[in-house]
Design goal:
The complex is a heterodimer of chains A (112) and B (415).
Chain A lengths: L4 H17 L6 H6 L3 H20 L3 H20 L7 H18 L8
Chain B lengths: L1 H20 L1 H38 L4 E5 L11 H4 L7 H10 L3 E16 L2 E11 L3 H4 L4 E4 L4 H5 L4 E4 L1 H7 L10 E4 L2 E9 L14 E5 H4 L13 E6 L5 H15 L11 E4 H44 L1 H9 L4 H38 L7 H27 L3 H6 L1
Parallel strand pairs in B: 3-8, 5-7
Antiparallel strand pairs in B: 1-9, 1-10, 2-3, 2-9, 4-7, 5-8, 6-7
Helix pairs in contact in B: 1-2, 1-12, 2-10, 2-12, 2-13, 4-9, 10-12, 10-13, 12-13
Chain lengths: 112, 415
């Protein structure tokens, strides 16, 4: 199956998003939350990046990993009380990504 | 789990062989991560050390203490200094009014400073801060008497020629280590009997360390100095009773001082009531800016370092393509190849990060003496450095590792 244009766009946006937000992992504001918070947040960002690679190769695990990392990110924001109004835009985009993925989920490859 | 560790062990062996086979290439690739980790963790280490030092200095001014003086402590461009400079300085009359009328005050003390030479026979220490302090100064300021004692009420009231020395002054006047208690030192051309030594405080970023300072009774220094002169920086330190907030204390002090200075209703206060928390907040902003600048610079260095790791991994995959083909034809699963190259990337990145941390640690051993303050590579910064290296390894190594895992064994063996 050829990769749909919409998934390509989402993946490119995702890759750029990871490059831009990766330095945020070790920002002073995350560092202030606790010694291991940059590590936890960093793993979530890394998982999101890997999920985009999976989606780029039309793998189901990519979509599943994206959904899990999104859930973990929300949990992180809520538990650390760092969810702000500006985070809503990120949530809207993520939900849109997941809904789009669902349309193509059955056509995706179930293998690694 | 056993398979996983076996895999990691094999990957580390592969990575080590790859490192040793291409030393220069590996070194240049790791340099990006090393510099990135060095840049960002250095900034965090220096800002953390500065912050600890300044917070320690602020704490030594006393917690829960309100400072009455002419100038308000404030940060920012909007500071109408031309108004404040017309104000009178804090006076002993103000102190007496506070002691007499305040119900929320636990202790209040007046302090005035000047700089003079202190002498003991042929030994002398130049440019010592000589503080004239009132009786309760030990109750409003954070310092410990190491030897001897503080002034008695009688000594303070009767302007006794007694002195308490800071540690540096003591070491300068009595280098042989003899006890200074009971000895007479000379200041202002007069003799003072040493009654106490203040415990060493070390360097202070705010310049308020008591090491190069001596204290004498306020009533004595009043005979020599104009204690209201602005050059002598007079101020009153007021400590609230337990359970009384600084806000309550400030409200009461405002009333007492306005009455004492006979200020008409509606006119502005002619004094400032400063709190140490203002200093803390001011420095919070400064450290946030420094931390953010360091984070941006270091962040981009690390990204560049990540591209270096990704590059070396792509080369590594290309070089070992036929090996991957053989492994797969012998039954190796995709995830086995993926984990093999991914752990190699993480291993390489961690070595780069460890080198960066090692360089910082070596620098901190010498930098403390050079800057006159303690600079420490904290555990949290070590954890952060290793975390960043680990994550960079994952992010930059995943694409090459995944492309290796996806290789067709037949095509791979042919190459």
């Amino acid at each position: 199956m050829k990769r749909p244009l919409i998934l390509s766009i989402i993946c490119v946006i995702g890759f750029l998003w990871v490059v831009i937000t990766f330095p945020g992992v070790f920002s002073p504001s995350v560092k202030k939350l606790g010694v291991f918070m940059p590590a936890i947040y960093g793993l979530i960002v890394a998982a999101t990046f890997i999920s985009f690679i999976g989606v780029w190769h039309l793998k189901r695990w990519g979509m599943e990993l994206y959904a899990i990392s999104f859930f973990c990110k929300m949990l992180f924001f809520i538990l650390t009380k760092t969810f702000e109004i500006t985070s809503i835009a990120g949530v809207v985009f993520s939900v849109w990504f997941i809904i789009t993925y669902l349309f193509f989920y059955k056509k995706m490859d179930a293998n690694l | 789990m056993h398979l996983f560790f076996q895999l990691v062990k094999e990957s580390v062996l592969f990575a080590s062989q790859s490192l040793l086979a291409n030393k220069l290439r590996t070194f240049l690739s790791l340099l990006g991560i090393t510099i990135g980790i060095f840049a960002i963790i250095t900034v965090f280490t220096v800002t953390d050390s500065l912050e600890n030092n300044i917070r320690g200095s602020i704490a030594s001014l006393g917690n829960n203490v309100v400072i009455v003086e002419k100038w308000p402590w404030a940060f920012g461009a909007d500071y109408p200094w031309w108004k404040y400079m017309l104000r009178p300085t804090a006076s002993v009359d103000d102190l007496e009014a506070i002691i007499l009328n305040s119900k929320t005050t636990e202790a209040a003390a007046f302090r005035v400073d000047t700089k003079k030479r202190v002498q003991y026979f042929s030994n002398m220490v130049e440019n010592v801060t000589i503080s004239g302090v009132s009786a309760d100064y030990n109750l409003v300021s954070n310092f410990e008497i190491e030897q001897g004692r503080y002034f008695t009420q009688l000594e303070s009231d009767n302007a006794k020629n007694a002195v308490i020395l800071g540690k540096t002054v003591q070491e300068g006047l009595f280098p042989s280590g003899e006890s200074p208690l009971g000895k007479d030192v000379k200041m202002f051309g007069r003799k003072f009997t040493v009654i106490g030594i203040v415990k060493k405080q070390g360097e202070s970023m705010l310049g308020n360390s008591m090491d190069n300072q001596v204290m004498i009774p306020l009533n004595f220094i009043r005979n020599i100095l104009d204690v209201r002169a602005e050059t002598n920086e007079p101020y009153i330190a007021v400590k609230a009773k337990a359970g009384v907030s600084n806000e309550q204390l400030k409200d009461e002090l405002t009333g007492i001082l306005r009455a004492e200075r006979r200020l008409q209703p509606g006119t502005e206060d002619s004094f400032a009531l400063n709190e140490t928390s203002v200093l803390s907040k001011g420095f919070d902003g400064l450290f946030d800016v420094v931390g953010t600048v360091g984070w941006i610079i270091g962040g981009f260095s690390i990204l560049v370092g990540g591209f270096g790791i990704a590059n070396i991994m792509f080369v590594s995959v290309k070089e070992r393509t036929n090996l991957i083909g053989i492994q797969k034809s012998l039954g190796a699963k995709n995830y086995f190849i993926l984990l093999q190259f991914l752990s190699e990337a993480i291993f390489l990145s961690l070595i780069g990060g460890l080198l960066g941390l090692l360089v910082i640690w070596v620098i901190t051993l010498f930098a403390g003496d050079a800057f006159g303050m303690e600079i420490t590579l904290t555990l949290s910064n070590v954890v952060l450095g290793l975390t960043i290296s680990f994550l960079i390894g994952i992010i930059s190594g995943f694409v090459p590792a995944y492309s290796a895992a996806q290789l067709d064994p037949v095509e791979a063996i042919r190459q």
